[in-house]
Amino acid sequence: MQKPARRTAARHARPSHRGRNAAFAVTGALAIGGAGLFGVQAATTAQAATPTVTQDKLTPATMVAGQATRAALTVHSSACFTAKAVGVGVRDAAGHNLDFPGNVANAQICPSGLSITTGSRTLPAGTYTQFGFWQDLGGAWHNLPSRQLVVSAASATPAPTPAPAPTSTPTATSTPTTAAPVAGKKLTWSDEFNSLALGSRWTADKSSSYHYGDHNPNDNKLDWLNKNNVNVSGGVATFTAKPGTHTLENGKQSWDTGLLTTEYSTEGFEVKTGDYVETRVKLPAGTGAWPALWTWNSTSGTHGEIDTFEYHTDNANLLELTNHINPNHKYVTDANAIAHDKWVTVGTHYGATSVEWYINGVKVFSDGTGVGTNWSAYLILNLSLSAGQYHPAPQGTAPITFAADYVRVYR
Prior knowledge:
This protein is mostly beta strands. Helices cover 3% and strands 42% of the residues. The longest helix is centred in the N-terminal third of the chain and has 14 residues.
């Protein structure tokens, strides 16, 4: 969740966050009259320096609802240049960006062509607008020609054995092991959520990662932090988001929601280089839910942000794993381990030269960039609500919940 004025905000600028509400057109205004010939030459030169990018191939043209699918894009340009990012965009009928994850950064586009394959994602049945896009080094987005993407309903399959009806309060489905998947580490700090230690262990109503302390619309969030929206029962912490009474600076209505951070607490616990952190969480299903476990340090120029995971419910089987300090990221898709209302264990080893991510005890990514030797930061576990720019906002007023079994740190 990086957040420039937010968490990556900022949380970001996560690789998946972009503002592209309309196709970008490059125009050159030729000077007339007093500017004379010099003005014409300057404008013509500027136009000539802008490469022309042609979209040669874009797949898929169809998908099946609920089936994770990758997109492929082939483009070529009139001259070689480096694009800050290249990817495949998708918009629904309401104009929400539902892009395929996994933009290619610092891509070289030449007359000989460039082909990319994105990460996979699922979409509900319906008709969408699909297009390739690229971002220039100045930060402007350029959308390529669009077309329809038709997502058909999944064919009927034998009904599975019904799962037990959920209880009103999430409960851990098993007792997790206390061993870490990283050799030589011993448990040094943990919260099993048998009680909620606000003040001493956690702070629940403010974070320096939020521009206004208790809310942060700059990061495309509807959040308004309220300590009463985190509760503990049966060894599980439940974060609940509900429509709030505040109006955000951007005019949107806030949602009261829960956040726990070690920042501002009496302990003031920080993770540091070499630590392994792990949490076991039940992923939400409500539209607009954006839970995450991440780190933050307001005294660092990079804000010390490492995202153990971020989750958006429109990508039901995908977790976002991101190093914002020495940038690198991976989108992991696994329908067996990652799904709505499913418990999953996610961990991160903060290595000096490589950060490693684990899902259910299995290493899924080593970034090769690391956090450096003197890094430290506070922990944040929270449920954010998307404001609709990059992922759909909440629909209706029904509460949205996210649950955590524990947070553990091994050193």
